[in-house]
């Protein structure tokens, strides 16, 4: 193999690939990346057997061929060389790089030992704008559990039917659901699958370009096809809880307040939050305000009032402020709506007049 | 040689031929899914393993399988996710902090969608006392021999006494112990709703098939079947199908089958065909044991005397007992001190419904309403049976619940002699022992006037 390409392009592809390698001790080849040149494309591949990514890099191919080298080594190497253009060559299983001023050999593995990417046969796929998918996933994944004890809760659930794409995540203390209408999609069959939360984090990084991506899934895998990359992840085997039944339909208290006011006040109050991260919210129709108070036995106490229009019963409930601070920034409206049914039932937060995103959070026990 | 043995022998060969790292990575969690007509299907845990086995090890696998079973012609590979998460693990972004006890969860989130059972209801956390030991023993017998003894099992008892816990524990125990069985737990109300929606969607057939497929069907709160003729009918057929096939059915209700109003004769006789056991109210020792176990389970540190006091004050309902425990614990945590017995009493007195605050007139009025007779007729000196029985019931309740003296009772009922009151009281006690229907009636009358108090 002999290829020539811009260091800038290669570098960004290698750093994306490196994130998808694994620290597997039994099979060291899994922390390597595959560089292959065939016909007229250069492809970089990496996998940790959970996710896999393949990135196309533009460049000039003198000779076809392939090489597998440790990701960390080549990444650090590329980050530290001044050259704009480099030429990569293969000598036996090693990567040989020669410029005017240096000669480098990176030891590699036999390319035939590199895992073969699974074929993902997809009957139907949907097309979406990359920023929209990215924004939607980011707004939901925040509610997913990060513990692997319940794999279905450490996942983001996709429900695709006709032209609506519903994605949801919950760790059983809070739940986020985003509803996207995809104009170009019409799936006749209801498709539903669970993507591991960690794979979603990786997807967020990949979806940075402003382009349209294709997304499809079969029984075991999801695939995303971008302009110059292909991303595959395994799916979680499990059943997502039947969450729609827990989203309340009617409410005893409804409060509307300016999002930025609420958010800045929660962050301010969090300075004085106790060990349990608890913040007490008092929704008062008569005072036309949401009163927030926190107390820490050692740090001090704090209370503040955020003006709001509050309708219905007055209610006091205690929440984990982190859960509030996770969900509220995801709402894309100037005004947000709090919907409650007493101090022991879930509180639903959404943008005023916007039902596409809902964030549901359970209160904490106590007075 | 079964599939498992065949595969493990083949793996022995392969292990010798490939490197340790390769073997561990690619052959972990593989197994033979199917072997028919000379074609073996090998299950791999993920897409990568499948590709790898197919492309790199196919010849090896075929050779070693053939050396044992020569008629094998071909091997297929497919992805079969194993029950344990496999493949490489990426370190979590941050350490997972366990949730504090105070954070509430979405209700019923951990219900197993396949069986509808909540795993938190286990048999080991079910406290057995004299009030429920019969029900517990019957449950154990059912778990040991589902479908054989006590079919159907009918458990009844008041609210918050642990019926649902026992019912779900039966399901969970059978699920855990024996060979895989199809188990389903449903409340009668949900059954009814499902039937209605299946009728709407023209899918009654699916509905029928679903329910006739279970090895154990647990139906909670069957008293809600009352008045729903179509549901009863459908359930009757389901029950018959299951019972004939020797499948276990378990019911619960807040009253014995005979006392469930408006339930078809056919269904009623089926419910009574097996064994009927009741759960009564726990006595002091059991209440204390329950409190202690709840406190230990939730790591609530409260002094023994406080627990004893709670067990003393809250007498009827286990759910209330739990609520009281929570309240006291929260209060003491909030005030950051150990609560004295007087504190506990004053806190709980706010929460406990005063049971004895009904007035004699209220009781009489409720009784009259219940038996559908004019209130004033109770006060009349008449010997008509339709009046006499309610009058006796009313006298009994005033004596029992309000501790009214016999002369007072006599006076209250239009100046009757106190011996009449004594006779009425004793007669009702006698009758309730023989007649469970009367006992049920009295219970419901009591509920009525006690609930008016709110």
Assigned CATH superfamily of the largest domain in chain B: P-loop containing nucleotide triphosphate hydrolases
Poorly predicted runs of chain B are 83-96
Name of the top-level CATH class of the largest domain in chain A? Alpha Beta
Tally of DSSP helical segments of chain A: 6
Q: Count helical runs of chain B.
A: 20
- Unreliable spans of chain A: none
Q: Enumerate the strands of the largest sheet of chain B in spatial order, edge to edge or round the barrel.
A: 5-6-7-4-8
Mean pLDDT of chain A: 91
Number of strands of chain A: 25
Helix content of chain B: 40-55%
Q: What integer value in Å does the Rg of chain B equal?
A: 31 Å
Q: What kind of assembly state do the chains in view correspond to?
A: heterodimer
Compressed to H and E, one letter per element, the order of chain B equals: HHEEHHEHEHEHHEHEHEHHHHHHHHHH
From the alpha carbons, calculate the radius of gyration of chain A and give it in angstroms: 25 Å
CATH architecture of the largest domain in chain B: 3-Layer(aba) Sandwich
CATH topology of the largest domain in chain B: Rossmann fold
The N- and C-terminal alpha carbons of chain A lie at a distance of 70 Å
Q: Can you describe what's shown?
A:
- Chain B: It is found in: Cytoplasm.
- The complex is a heterodimer of chains A (367) and B (454).
- Chain A has helices at residues 7-19, 71-79, 130-141, 197-206, 259-270, 321-327; strands spanning 2-6, 32-38, 41-47, 51-57, 60-63, 65-70, 85-91, 94-98, 103-106, 125-129, 155-162, 164-170, 174-181, 187-196, 212-217, 221-225, 229-234, 253-258, 278-284, 289-296, 300-312, 315-320, 335-340, 347-351, 357-361.
- By secondary structure, chain A is an alpha+beta fold.
- Chain A has a 12-stranded antiparallel β-sheet. Chain A has an 8-stranded antiparallel β-sheet with strand order 6-2-3-4-17-16-15-10. Chain A has a 5-stranded antiparallel β-sheet with strand order 5-1-7-8-9.
- In chain A, a hairpin with a 2-residue loop joins strand 2 and strand 3.
- In chain A, helix 5 (259-270) runs antiparallel to helix 6.
- Chain A starts with a strand and ends in a 6-residue tail after the last strand.
- Chain B is of the alpha/beta class.
- Chain B folds into 4 domains: 3-79, DnaA, N-terminal domain (GMP Synthetase, Chain A, domain 3), CATH 3.30.300.180; 133-279, P-loop containing nucleotide triphosphate hydrolases (Rossmann fold, 3-Layer(aba) Sandwich), CATH 3.40.50.300; 284-351, Orthogonal Bundle (Helicase, Ruva Protein, domain 3), CATH 1.10.8.60; 360-451, DnaA protein, C-terminal DNA-binding domain (Chromosomal Replication Initiator Protein Dnaa, Chain: A), CATH 1.10.1750.
- In chain B, 53% of the residues lie in helices and 10% in strands.
- Chain B has helices at 3-17, 20-27, 47-56, 58-66, 133-144, 163-177, 188-200, 204-211, 229-244, 265-271, 284-297, 304-313, 318-335, 341-351, 360-371, 375-379, 385-402, 406-412, 418-434, 436-451, and strands at 31-36, 39-44, 74-79, 153-157, 183-187, 216-220, 248-253, 275-279.
- Chain B has a 5-stranded parallel β-sheet, with helices on both faces.
- In chain B, strand 6 (216-220), helix 9 (229-244) and strand 7 form a beta-alpha-beta unit.
- In chain B, helix 11 packs across helix 12, helix 12 runs parallel beside helix 14 (341-351) and helix 19 (418-434) packs across helix 20.
- Chain B is elongated and about 105 Å long.
- Residues 83-96 of chain B have low confidence and may be disordered.
- Classes of the chains: A alpha+beta (367), B alpha/beta (454).
- Chains A and B meet through loops of A and helix 2, helix 3 and helix 13 of B.
């Amino acid at each position: 193999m002999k290829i020539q390409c811009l260091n800038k392009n290669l570098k960004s592809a290698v750093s994306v690939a490196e994130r998808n390698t694994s620290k597997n001790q039994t099979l060291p080849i899994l922390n390597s990346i595959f560089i292959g040149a065939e016909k007229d494309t250069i492809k970089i591949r990496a996998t940790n057997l959970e996710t896999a990514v393949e990135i196309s890099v533009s460049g000039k191919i003198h000779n076809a061929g392939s090489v597998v080298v440790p990701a960390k080594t080549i990444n650090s190497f590329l980050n530290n060389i001044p050259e704009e253009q480099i030429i990569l060559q293969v000598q036996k299983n090693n990567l040989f790089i020669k410029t005017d001023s240096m000669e480098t050999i990176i030891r590699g593995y036999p390319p035939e030992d590199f895992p073969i990417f699974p074929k993902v046969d997809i009957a139907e796929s949907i097309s979406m704008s990359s920023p929209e998918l990215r924004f939607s996933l980011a707004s939901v994944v925040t509610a997913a559990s990060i513990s692997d004890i319940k794999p279905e809760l450490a996942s983001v659930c996709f429900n695709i039917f006709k032209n609506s794409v519903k994605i949801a995540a919950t760790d059983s203390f809070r739940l986020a659901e985003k509803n996207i209408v995809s104009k170009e999609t019409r799936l006749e069959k209801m498709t539903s699958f669970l993507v591991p939360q960690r794979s979603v984090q990786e997807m967020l990084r990949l979806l940075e370009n402003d382009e349209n991506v294709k997304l499809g899934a079969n029984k075991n895998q999801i695939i995303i096809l971008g302009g110059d990359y292909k991303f595959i992840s395994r799916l979680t085997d499990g059943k997502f809880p039947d969450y729609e039944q827990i989203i309340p339909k009617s409410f005893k208290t409804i409060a509307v307040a300016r999002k930025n006011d609420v958010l800045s006040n929660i962050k301010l109050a969090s300075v004085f939050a106790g060990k349990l991260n608890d913040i007490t919210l008092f929704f008062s129709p008569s005072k036309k305000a949401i009163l927030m108070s926190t107390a820490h036995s050692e740090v001090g106490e704090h209370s503040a009032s955020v003006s709001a229009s509050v309708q219905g019963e007055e209610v006091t409930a205690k929440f984990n402020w982190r859960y509030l601070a996770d969900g509220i920034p995801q709402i894309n409206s100037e005004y947000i709506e709090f919907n409650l049914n007493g101090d022991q039932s879930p509180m639903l937060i959404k943008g005023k007049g916007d039902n596409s995103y809902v964030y549901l959070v359970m209160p904490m026990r106590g007075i | 040689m079964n599939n498992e043995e065949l595969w493990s022998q083949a793996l022995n060969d392969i292990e010798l031929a490939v490197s340790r790292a390769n073997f561990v990575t690619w052959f972990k969690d593989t197994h033979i899914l199917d072997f028919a007509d000379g074609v073996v299907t090998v299950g791999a845990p993920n897409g990568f393993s499948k590709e790898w086995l197919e492309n790199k090890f196919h010849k090896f696998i075929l050779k070693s399988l053939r050396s044992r079973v020569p008629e094998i012609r071909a091997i297929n590979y497919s992805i079969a996710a194993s029950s344990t998460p496999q493949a490489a693990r990426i370190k979590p972004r941050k350490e997972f902090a366990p949730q504090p006890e105070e954070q509430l969860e979405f209700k019923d989130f951990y219900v197993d969608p396949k069986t509808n059972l909540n795993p938190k209801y286990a048999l080991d956390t079910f406290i057995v006392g004299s009030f429920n030991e019969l029900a517990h023993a019957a449950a154990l017998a059912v778990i040991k021999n589902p479908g054989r003894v006590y079919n159907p099992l009918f458990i009844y008892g008041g609210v918050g006494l642990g019926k649902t816990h026992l019912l779900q524990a039966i399901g969970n125990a059978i699920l855990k112990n024996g060979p895989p069985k199809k188990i389903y737990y449903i409340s009668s109300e949900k059954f009814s709703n499902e039937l209605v929606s299946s009728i709407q969607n023209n899918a009654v057939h699916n509905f029928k098939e679903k329910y006739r497929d279970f090895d154990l069907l647990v139906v909670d709160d069957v008293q809600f079947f009352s008045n729903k003729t179509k549901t009863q009918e459908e359930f009757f057929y389901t029950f018959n199908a299951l019972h004939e096939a020797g499948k276990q059915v378990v019911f619960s209700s807040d009253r014995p089958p005979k006392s469930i109003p408006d339930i078809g004769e056919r269904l009623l006789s089926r419910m009574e065909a097996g064994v009927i056991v009741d759960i009564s109210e726990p006595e002091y020792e059991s209440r204390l044991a329950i409190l202690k176990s709840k406190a230990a389970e939730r790591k609530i540190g409260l002094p023994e005397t406080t627990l004893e006091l709670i067990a003393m004050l809250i007498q009827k309902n286990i759910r209330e007992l739990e609520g009281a425990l929570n309240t006291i614990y929260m209060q003491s945590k909030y005030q950051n001190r150990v609560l004295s017995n007087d504190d506990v009493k004053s806190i709980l007195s706010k929460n406990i419904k005063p049971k004895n605050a009904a007035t004699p007139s209220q009781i009489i009025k409720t009784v009259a309403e219940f038996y559908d007779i004019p209130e004033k007729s109770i006060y009349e000196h008449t010997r008509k049976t339709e009046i006499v029985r309610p009058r006796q019931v009313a006298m009994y309740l005033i004596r029992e619940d309000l501790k009214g003296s016999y002369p007072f009772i006599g006076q209250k009922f239009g100046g009757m002699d106190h011996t009449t009151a004594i006779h009425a009281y004793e007669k009702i006690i006698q009758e309730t022992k023989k007649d469970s229907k009367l006992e049920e009636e009295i219970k419901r009358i009591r509920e009525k006037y006690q609930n008016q108090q709110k």
